[in-house]
Every structure is written in structure tokens, then in C-alpha cells.
Amino acid sequence: MTSTRPGFDRRTFLQLAGVTSATVALGIAAPDAAGAAPGRPLRDGAFSLGVASGDPRPDGVVLWTRLAPEPLAADGHGGMPLRQVPVQYEVAEDERFRRIARRGTVIASPELAHSVHPEVRGLQPGREYFYRFRVGAQLSPAGRTRTLPAPGQRTGSFSFATGSCQAWYHGHFAAHRHLADEDLDAVFFLGDYIYEYGITESNLWRRGAPALGPEHRVEIETLEQYRLRYALHKSDPHLQAAHAAAPWLVTWDDHEVQNDYTADRSKYGISPEHFEHRRAVAYRAFYENLPLSLAALPNGPDGRVHRRFDVGSLARINMLDTRQFRDSLDLPAQQRSMLGGEQERWLYDGMVGSPATWNVIANGVTVAAITEDRTDQWDGFPAARGRLIEAMQRTSNPVVLTGDIHKHVAAELKADFADPASRTVGVELICTSIASDGDGAPTDKYAADWLQHPYVKLYDGRRGYVHCRMTPEELVSEFKIVPWVQADATAPIETVARFSTPAGSPGLHRKA
What is the spatial distance between Cα 490 and Cα 478, in angstroms, rounded to a whole number? Predict the structure, then answer.
């Protein structure tokens, strides 16, 4: 694998982290002539990393796959030849692919790890579709996706799940096995899709895991290493099933690059020049391995994952980036921004006066005030949080979706956290991890920090996800857990709490 430390300069970085516009365009749509046979046949197992869809719109969706007949090849290329390969896709109205709605060809290029991101348009709003890929004689598994309702359309319900934090080495993805069985319109993944740490005997808690080579034992820092780590996570069949079950809307937190990084700064003393390169290749691998639209393709170390989706007249979804633009903790607390000025303005312009019944903020770290020493959360950005809470008070039915902390937490967001009797302005639904920190327990040493606040209505430290159903009248949130993840993926699913939040009356009313 290529070392990035010696002889690094910005020109080298731009050459390495860049990719030609022609290559990108071919990965989204290619001329019909590109549908010719892919030269020498590929080895069997080209679709070993599954299929996915994401970033749905009323008229279309982004599809994704990455060709990798040897997904854990140490060089990060997935066992693929270093040449372009044409890939066909089909989108159908039925599971048997008898009624084809759209088909096309894209080019899988080594520059993008042989991933493709066809952006399919011309579909009907609010409809279920099925999709698949073909390369040579090999046919991928089929995936299910769904377009969003038309703008302004009255929508009776919208069901989604939230997940985050899936350290492969800490446990099996039993939560994804159950999530894949849910009837969902979308999945929100709120960060820490991969982890950058070296995998060693000390942190490999997933029993029965396959033997891994020495290339997995080091903290990842090169493009090839990031690609390999995504392949390891995506080799899990239950994660693949969850991707194939519904379109995903994803954002990142810190472990997609490095633990607790802040904008262009490493917490661990990496030089600014080297960390700029590391962020660039990490963002590049994020795009390569997830069903993201072209807008998310980074330009060197700069990426854009904050974006907005409208679910008819029912909901407006604001996906945030709480890592790339946040200010350093070296600044006085009252001067720090979590989102940066441009993203803050974008968010509040879309929230205040929104015509949607529900206004969702999907972000990486906890908004509710917990303890002052949790500076990696919004607790470390009190003035920025104050501006967010003020905007929520001028927004209909704000709901914050969060991951990061490896605990289920349900909290009411207060106009003044110093006064728990102050007005409740919205709710925050924090999903626990998929596997990070192993099995977990209903309570732990951090529970008192959270439950000291009367506005925190639930704390549970086991693994799982949150299932939500929105209607014009209420939001019902169900916090689901699996009792174990370290031993195997057979754990049953349990609902530990169910809350109702009526439209027009923010708060959490426990139903079970």
C-alpha cells in the first residue's frame, strides 16, 4: 500500500485524490455503445459487496454497487483488473422484472474502486421499485427502493429507521438482520459506518470472525486501506440485506476519517498537510462505497454531505455535517460553530417557515445538554446550540435524529436547558450502535449523567436501531434492541420503549 507521509505536497495530493470528470460521468451514465461485452470475463463473485440505493427524490434515486470478486484483497482493489468494466442496470416496477421502468449502462473504473452510482431519473413519485445490475453473465442480487412523494403532496405516512456506529470487529450485525425485515420507506445512517482502528486480538470481539491478514492490524490512512475497511464492513450479509431493503440517506461522523477529528485538525498530532490528505482519501472512499449522488463526490479534502429532502408535505429532512466545518475547541466556547456559517444559514433558511408538518434534523452528535465535559457533542458549542434551539422555536414540529454515543436515548429539547421547566421545543431520538462496544447493557456507568435530567426519558446501552413512523397527526418512535452481538447474529429483536410525539405538541409520551 502506498505511504502518504514522505514527499507529500499539495500538487501530489490533488493528483492522487482527484478523479477525472469523464470517469465520474461514466460511473453515473454511459453511452449505449458502452454496453458491449466487458472483455475478458470477470471472476465469479463480482457482486460480493451487494447492492444499494440512496438519496431518493420524487422522480428518481441513486443506485450503487462495487465490483469485487475478492473483496478482502490486501491491495484494496477487490480482486478487480485495473481496467474499465461496463455494468448494466435495470429498474422495474415488479420483483420479477417483467415491467422495466428504466435501464442503462455505467462504467466501473479502477479510479473509483470499480464502484458505480447511476442516478436514475424519470420514475414516478411515491412508488416502490426493484433494481439489479449485470456484468457479463453475472447478475447481482435484487434491491428494493422507493421514490419520495411529489412536492407538496399530502402523504399519509412515512416510515424509517435510524442506525449508526457499526464497528465490525465488536460484534455481529444482528440489528441489520432485523432492520432488513422492516417495511421501511428509508433508512437514515447517522455516522461511523466504518472504524479506522487497527483490528487486533484485543478488540476483535466478533466470535467466529474470519481470519484477517496483517493489513487489517494497522490504523488505516491510505485510500487503499479505507477501501479495504469498507469492503470488510460491507462483506457482512445482514448489512447487505439492510441496504437492499430500502433507500439509505447517510452522513458521516468522525470514524470515517479518524476519532474525534475537528475540521482540518487531527486529535492525535498528525501534521496539517498529512491530515488534509487523509481526509481527502477518506471522503473519497466514503463516496465510492455508499449510494450517494454526485454532489457528495469530494474535491480533494472538501466534501458536501449536508443536503435536504422533502417527503411531500409531511416532512422536510435536513442531513447535516457536524465534522467538516466545526470550529476548534481552542476558540472560546461562545465563539464556536458546530456547522460553520454557510451550513448554519442553509439549515435555518430551510427550517424556519418550512411548509412541512415535521422538520427533521439528522446529525452526528447529541444536541441535548448533558454535561459540560462532553465537548465533542453540542455541549461544547453552547452558542451554536442556542442558535439551533432558537430556530427550532420558529419551526413546526422539529425532530433531531442522532447517533454517535452507542446508547438509546430519548430526550426533550428545552428552550432553556438550565431550566427543565422551560418550554419543550422539539425532541431528540438518539439511536444506539449497531455493534460498537459489543453487547452493552441496559444501564452502565454513564447512565447517571444522562438520567439526572428530567428531559431525558430513556437510556439503554444495548445495540439496535430506532424505528419511526410519521403521520400528519403524530410521530411514533420505537427503540429496538438485540440482547447480544458478540456471540453471533441470531439475537431476537425487542422493543424497549415506544413514544408518541403529537404534531403541534412537542414532547415524548411513553406508550410502552
Answer: 21
Flag whether 333 is in a domain.
yes
Residues in the chain: 512
How do 119-120 and 60-66 pair as beta strands?
A: antiparallel
> Which of 197, 278, 281, 268 has its CA nearest to residue 232?
197
The residue type at 428:
E
pLDDT in tens, 292-324: 999 999 999 999 999 999 999 999 999 999 999
Q: Is the separation of the CB atoms in 337 and 325 below 8 Å?
A: yes
Whose cell is 440505493? That residue is 53
Find the distance separating the first CA and the last CA of the chain, reported in whole Å.
Answer: 52
Q: How many folded domains does the chain comprise?
A: 1
Low pLDDT (below 50) residues in the chain? 1-17, 36
From 478, 489, 485, 481, select the one nearest 512 (Cα to Cα).
478
- CATH classification at residue 420: 3.60.21.70
Instruction: Give the residue numbers spanning the domain of 311.
Output: 10-510
Q: What is the pTM of this model?
A: 0.95
Residue written as cell 470487529?
Answer: 169
Angle between helices 10-17 and 272-288 (to 10 degrees): 10
| CB atoms near residue 138 (< 10 Å) | 18
Collapse the DSSP code of 101 into the 3-class scheme (helix H, G, I; strand E, B; otherwise coil) and give the result: strand
Per DSSP, the residues of 8-64 read --HHHHHHHH---HHHHHHHH---GGGGS--SSPPPS-TTTT-EEEEEEETTEEEEE
Q: Is residue 5 part of a domain?
A: no
What are the cell numbers at 242?
A: 439492510
SS3 at position 250? strand
Residue 192 CA to residue 455 CA, distance in Å, equals: 27
Phi, psi of 186 (to 5 degrees): -165, 160
For residue 388, with 0-12 CB atoms within 10 Å meaning exposed, 13-18 middle and 19 or more buried, which class applies? buried
350-369 core/surface letters (b: 16 or more CB in 10 A; e: else): bbeebebbbbbbbbbbbbbb
SS3 451: helix
Q: Please write the tens of the pLDDT for every residue from 25-38.
A: 888 877 765 554 55
Report the C-alpha gap between 307 and 287 in whole angstroms.
15
Place of cell 454557510: 342
Q: Which cell is 395 given? A: 419551526
Q: How far is CA 51 from the centre of its chain?
A: 15
The verdict on residue 2 lying in a domain is no
Cβ atoms of residues 194 and 255 within 8 Å = yes
pLDDT given for residue 20 in this prediction: 81
32 φ/ψ angles, rounded to the nearest 5 degrees: -55, -30
> Is the residue at 1 inside a domain?
no
The backbone torsions φ and ψ at residue 353, rounded to the nearest 5 degrees and listed phi first, read: 85, 5
- Classified as helix, coil or strand, 80 is coil
Cell of 71: 473483496
- 255 within 8 A of 226, measured Cβ to Cβ: no
